[in-house]
Write a structure and sequence with these properties.
With about 220 residues, this protein is of the alpha/beta class. Helices cover about 55% and strands about 15% of the residues. The chain contains eleven helices and six strands. A six-stranded parallel β-sheet has the order 2-1-3-4-5-6, with helices on both faces. Strand 4, helix 4 and strand 5 form a beta-alpha-beta unit.
Length: about 220
């Protein structure tokens, strides 16, 4: 008789129907037990703190606190908990950013159910798993590291560069809004895009990055 306790899992996704289907799928394997669900990043923090699961399955795109921010906060609060992104995004930036923030796996929602369970078991054993079709992206990123400073800077739009320059000068969102003639909400969107594209997590990091990048330019 197998006395190994089941692997406890919390599901985090803002689509209730998907959570229900995923929960049924995972629960069909006796190796797993779903011990909680959350529809947002904030709720996920509360549920994980109560359930203390072995594993969290986390969507990338959610309203409010997105998957990357939730991942970062979960890893900070519960370093022993393994977190796997389960998403529709096969974007290289999303994959690399998730791994940089400590994701223990990055899987796509269209994968076969049996394969999903097999990959989750590997994660609990201490492995980092990545969807098969994304391994080439990861390989290229490691073998040919983006001339990071130049290539990342080139992905910014003109407006995003303007916002980054304002951040570097220490301006708050309201001041940036007034200077550029755009709404505070639009400023926030641009800042979020800048941080995502440059693989940064805060305005301070963005300012430091900008100063460093500026200093590397030939005079």
């Amino acid at each position: 008789m197998n006395t190994t306790p089941p692997i406890t899992i919390v599901l985090v996704d803002d689509h209730a129907l998907f959570r229900k289907g995923l929960g049924q799928l995972i629960s069909s394997d006796p190796a797993f037990k779903v011990v909680g669900e959350a529809s947002s990043g904030l709720e996920a923090m509360q549920v994980v703190a109560q359930a203390l699961p072995d594993l969290v399955l986390l969507d990338l795109n959610m309203k409010g606190m997105d998957g990357i921010e939730t991942l970062s906060q979960l890893k900070l609060a519960h370093p022993q908990c393994r977190c796997v992104m389960l998403t529709v995004s096969d974007d290289e930036d999303d994959l690399l950013l998730a791994l940089r923030e400590g994701a223990d796996g990055y899987l796509l929602k269209d994968m076969e159910p049996e394969e999903l369970c097999a990959q989750l078991k590997k994660v609990v054993q201490g492995m980092t798993v990545v969807q098969d079709r994304l391994t080439e992206i990861l390989k290229n990123a490691l073998i040919n590291p983006v001339s990071v400073k130049t290539a990342q800077a080139d992905t910014l739009t003109d407006r995003e560069r303007e916002v980054l320059a304002c951040i570097t000068e220490g301006m708050n969102n309201k001041t940036i809004s007034n200077k550029l003639g755009i709404t505070v909400t639009t400023v926030k969107v641009h800042i979020k895009n800048v941080l995502r594209k440059l693989h940064l997590t805060s305005r301070l990091e963005a300012a430091v990055w900008a100063h460093h990048h500026q200093s590397e330019k030939p005079s």
